[in-house]
Write a structure and sequence with these properties.
Blueprint: H1 5-8, H2 16-24, E1 34-38, H3 44-53, E2 57-63, E3 69-75
Antiparallel strand pairs: 1-3, 2-3
Length: 79
């Protein structure tokens, strides 16, 4: 009746799943394709670092109604 720990544990900063996603997204996303990922409060800086590491472009960061960065729009392409 409970989620497995793997589903709940994002590592020390809560961004370990994003490391996996960003390392593999070029295999599934077309060059001009975009993906939208929800992020947690305080994770934006970590996500930007991971994106830079894997050469993923962050096109936009959308805040929630409280003004907290909540969704990142990413692309693997140059445009």
């Amino acid at each position: 009746n409970h989620d497995p720990i793997l589903a709940l544990d994002g590592g020390e900063n809560g961004v370990a799943p994003y490391e996996i996603i960003f390392s593999q997204i070029k295999n599934v996303l077309k060059p001009a394709g975009r993906a939208f990922l929800e992020i947690g409060q305080g994770q934006c800086g970590y996500i930007q670092g991971i994106a830079e590491k894997y050469r993923i472009r962050i096109l936009n960061i959308y805040p929630d109604y409280a003004g907290i960065p909540r969704v990142v729009e990413i692309s693997c392409g140059d445009k």
